[in-house]
Design a protein that fits this description.
This protein is an all-alpha fold. It has a domain of about 45 residues. The protein is about 50% helix and about 0% strand.
């Protein structure tokens, strides 16, 4: 049985982009992105050994502390987008 939330999500998903009123949403300008911060999910994690291309790992490491969490966030975003 479909609950109210599921039904509402289905209705919203069926809506065409052109029918959505965005007029009350402020534009995300440079000032917004300058103050934005990455919020990472806190699910349980599994330790494993995995091999990545050296240049990719160096790119993430160059961005500083938490590079493994950032790599995890990128992989999670990819997973969510392809479910």
């Amino acid at each position: 049985m479909m609950n109210i939330s599921d039904r509402r999500l289905k209705e919203l998903a069926a809506r065409r982009d052109e029918d959505i009123d965005y007029s009350d949403i402020p534009e995300l300008d440079k000032a917004f992105w300058d103050k934005a911060r990455l919020v990472l999910p806190k699910p349980s994690k599994q330790q494993m050994t995995i091999r990545f291309d050296t240049d990719m790992v160096e790119w993430f490491k160059a961005r500083g502390k938490g590079y493994q969490s950032h790599m995890n966030a990128v992989l999670r975003a990819y997973m969510e987008a392809h479910r």
